[in-house]
Amino acid sequence: MTFEKDINIDATELRLGLPGTSEESERQASTTLRISNKRALPSVADEKQCDQETAPPTKAQVVGWPPIRSYRKNNLQTKKTEVETSGMYVKVSMDGAPYLRKVDLKIYKGYPEVLKALEDMFKFKVGKYSEREGYNGSEFVPTYEDKDGDWMLVGDVPWEMFVNSCKRLRIMKGSEARGLGCVV
Amino acid sequence: MRKKMACSLPDEVLEHVFSFIRSDKDRNAVSVVCKSWYEMERWCRRRLFIGNCYAVSPRMVIRRFPEVRSIELKGKPHFADYNWVPDGWGGYVLPWIVEMVGAYPWLEEIRLKRMVVTDECLEHIAKSFKNFKVLVLFSCEGFSTDGLAAIAASCKNLRELDLRESDVDDLGGHWLSHFPETYTSLVSLNISCLGSDEVSLSALERLVGRCTNLRTLRLNRAVPLDKIAYILRRAPQLVDFGTGTYSADLQTDVFSNLAGAFYSCKELRSLSGFWDVVPAYLPAIYPVCSRLTSLNLSYATIQSPDLIKLLRHCPSLQRLLVLDYIEDSGLEALSSSCKDLQELRVFPSDPFGVERNVSLTELGLVSVCLACPKLQSVLYFCRQMSNAALVTIAQNRPNLTRFRLCIIEPRTADYLTLEPLDVGFGAIVEHCKDLRRLSLSGLLTDRVFEYIGRYAKKLEMLSVAFAGESDLGLHHVLSGCESLRKLEIRDSPFGDKALLANSAKLETMRSLWMSSCSVSFGTCKLLGQKMSRLNVEVIDECGPPDSRPDVCPVNKLYIYRSVAGPRFDMPPFVWTMDEDYALRDS
């Protein structure tokens, strides 16, 4: 067999058998693995003994191929998924509430819709919005943190700009809220 | 009797002479000349490169080299880049940081690749190294913007902060604002990996404005196009610039402002970024194109005609990274416009699609290889290849040092002859005598490994997937490739015989990775028991490997040489095979 000629194990200095055993007995113990010239992956004879799935994967099953760094994969796919399925989830906190919620801004078409959703979620009512005076008539004021880290009043900028720059929402309550609501 | 020269030179002279010897190889050679040189050299070694953080322990390093100023460490195996190493595998830098805090108070530079870096590590660095200057975290993970804030706040002498391709947790807090107003020494900042929320623009603009030595600035995707002009005008001395998102509604004033800002950057040599490109804004960079040596458009979904127009303006280009939208026609144009090209990387725009989506074939690569005499480094994804093309490339570009070809469908034959691509890759290793790195793909038998073993004498790193027929293939590589340091193999029928017959070779290499191959658990145990300076690690997420018969193949195997003995920070799905394995496991 060509294989045996090319790998002359005796010629290598290293013997890996335990002291006292001969090469022969070691070989007998370990050559239940057949070396075949076929391109099948693991040895055919012992497939039955192994619990793992050893058949070569079909096209659909090849995991992690081709070799693309995940960093690159994410950057490539972002364009597609943004349009398709991944939403624009932002955290929403309300002063006094013990835990936060998350809303997907992408599913709303404008301010009235999202404000209504927040009202339902936290069981409160916002006041009436006017450009000059902010929110009047309620002790709750919806605010958001934008990309620059500044806290803004919900409703001041066009809806698209709001969706693209809103990092998180906070429903302010009480005197703090009144201050923000009144100053334009 | 006259004393030998070496002993009669005073220490100060030796030290001065050694200070001119920079490369690790030379330093290592110097240190084995004699005992006194060993002693002298170890006290004045300032830089260390440790290619595998588990090959040696921090204490051993510190004991031998007490005065180190700069350290570079690598952690996870290369295949971790493609998510083939499970999370939690290891590569923690904290033990190193903890030891170095005590031993190297004057440490200036830390460069890490594929390691787990926590905020605690960054806080240690910020607090403990008073003269800290350079932090490079390449493909690292485990830290957040809080850690970055600590670095920004405390490292008064920081020159370089490079987070390339790392995975950073955004905890808000505007870490960039933690650089004090008095801080002006920044030379290089790469935050291109950060997500949308992690940088305050105003803090960035102020930082750029006051750091007049800034040479490299790579922004993240969140920085909009209309902010670039402002930033560039504040840093006209920039040499290397990475844009954020390169897209906006086309407005003449924005465009002319941008073009003017680029024009004022006379030192600019390298551009990158270009996410979400609007082609109409590309001409804004034309003022700098004639001097550009490096261009990374690998995130830019620009089509071939726009690329061709752009490349015509870049005669000095040495390095180009691009998506396969460039197509054969674009590569033709590249080959006639950019005669100084040294490195080309073409990435797939639709790697998981079954259908071909662009007209990019082997012909594009051939045209560049034929026409660019200085081309040394190639990374190319495509869907078809022929032996004839590879032979042409090999014969015309014998100066190639890195050749990485990925034919997207595994085991794809030569599309012209339907034969394996053995002959083609054989020609590559035969003609390119200085080849240091090779990645194989396509249909390959044991023959290609015979060629590699015979010819690839300078090869240091080999990547194999879905190739070969028997242990003979692996045996050819292990017995023939004299310079081999890293070997990584997946889904190939290589097993016990070749490994056992060449086990001594493994101690001359940094590491061997084999996944979905035919190495039995029994062989792993044998290797681990007999080779005390190798760590043999079996990775198996299905459960302990000894719950199955010894003849069963292991799922993933990572073998690396080490003087530190087996590691103890392994997750539950990694088993180390050493003398104690049987005892520990019972």
From TrEMBL, chain A:
PROSITE patterns hit by this protein: PB1
Highest taxon of source: Eukaryota
Parts of the chain that traverse the membrane: none
Main location: nucleus
Keywords per UniProt: Auxin signaling pathway, Nucleus, Repressor, Transcription, Transcription regulation
InterPro entries reported in the protein's UniProt record: AUX/IAA_dom (IPR033389), AUX_IAA (IPR003311), PB1-like (IPR053793)
Disordered: region residues: 17-61
PB1 domain ranges (all copies): 87-174
Compartments, record wording: Nucleus
Quaternary structure (record): Homodimers and heterodimers.
Entry's family note: Belongs to the Aux/IAA family.
Role this protein plays: Aux/IAA proteins are short-lived transcriptional factors that function as repressors of early auxin response genes at low auxin concentrations.
The name this protein goes by in its record: Auxin-responsive protein
TrEMBL record, chain B:
InterPro entries assigned to the protein according to its UniProt record, in alphabetical order: COI1_F-box (IPR041567), F-box_dom (IPR001810), Leu-rich_rpt (IPR001611), Leu-rich_rpt_Cys-con_subtyp (IPR006553), LRR_dom_sf (IPR032675), Transp_inhibit (IPR041101)
Statement: the UniProt record of this protein carries the keyword Metal-binding: no
Domain F-box: 9-50
Superkingdom per UniProt: Eukaryota
Keywords: Auxin signaling pathway
Pfam families the record matches: F-box_5, LRR_6, Transp_inhibit
PANTHER family found in the cross-reference section: F-BOX/TPR REPEAT PROTEIN POF3 (PTHR16134), PROTEIN TRANSPORT INHIBITOR RESPONSE 1 (PTHR16134:SF66)
Protein name: F-box domain-containing protein
Originating species: Hibiscus sabdariffa (roselle)
